[in-house]
Amino acid sequence: MPIHEFNPAPLTRQGDSFFINRKKTFQGIPVPDELLKRSLRFAFDMTYGQKGQHRPNRSGGDIQRDDWILFANTFQGKLAEFCLQSQLAGAGADIPEPDTETWALGQWDRYDLISDGKKINVKSAAYFSNLLLLEKHDWNDKAEYLPNMEDDPMFYDYFALVRIKPDIKTLFRKQRPKAGQIVTEKFIWPIVKNEIWQYDIPGQLPREAVAHCIQNQKLPKNALLNGRIRMDASNYYIQAGDFRNIHEIIGQKH
User: Fold this and answer.
1) Would you list the DSSP string of 151-195?
2) What backbone phi and psi angles, to 5 degrees, belong to 162?
3) Does any domain span residue 34?
């Protein structure tokens, strides 16, 4: 997509409040149980299984996240990767399955998926979300992920947004274990299997388009999103309605 053809919409601003104005309706696709189980196992290993560890707060953010919240976030992120990989592979893309190797704190896989030689950064969100947020402290104005630039620079070619239903954060908040309770995979699985799981993919954008948004679309710390959600960190943003069809990635080899 030539960058001159990309015309993203800024959020509507009213004082310190910012309102979404370019939405995309959720169109649910069933999630196979196998993808749920593999995502759960990975998230458990990265948290309660102590085979890996994720950072306890967002870059520049004030909110600390405990293991239960970290598990929910990790589960959502890996499930989004599996769903996108399944969708693209089914459409004919040459795309390996997501990495399920666990990593220590301060280490991470350098990209989420690679399709036909293109590196994809997969962002996940709840089914009702219409905004992709990129934490300001993590990205430069070329849409380069700063932690990846320290030793051996690597760039994402595409950014994809995947939405999950039910809202995982709300689901696990309601099912939080009691203080002192031992959390196992057997404890978590019934919480997952009792729900009807769906996903959709609002789309993708090439790195040049994301860089354009980083340079022009900022949501400051302490701003109110939709007049009610206070941002705990500064972010760049892209509205769901500005994403392009995910299948445009297929066959676009370098």
Assistant:
1) SS----SEEEEEEEES-HHHHHHHTPPPTTPPP-HHHHHHHHHTS
2) -125, 130
3) yes
Question: For the segment 191-243, what is each residue's pLDDT rounded down to a tens digit?
Answer: 999 999 999 999 999 999 999 999 999 999 999 999 999 999 999 999 999 99
Residue 42 near residue 78, CB atoms below 8 Å: yes
Structural domain harbouring 60:
3-249
CA dist., res. 43 & res. 124, Å (int): 14
Residue 1 pLDDT: 64
Residue 64 gets which letter from DSSP? Answer: B
Is residue 59, in this structure, part of any structural domain at all?
yes
Q: What's the whole-model pTM score? A: 0.89
Give the chain's domain count: 1
In a domain, 126, yes or no: yes
Task: Return phi, psi of residue 138, to 5°.
Answer: -100, -10
The one-character DSSP state at 15 is T
Lowest mean pLDDT among 68-72, 119-123, 250-254: 250-254
Q: How far apart are alpha carbons 196 and 188 in whole angstroms?
A: 15
Instruction: Give the per-residue SS3 of 211-248.
Output: HHHHHHCEECCCCEECCCEECCCCEEEEEHHHCECHHH
pLDDT tens per residue across span 126-157? 999 999 999 999 999 999 998 877 766 778 99
- Please indicate, yes or no, if residue 254 is contained in any of the structural domains: no
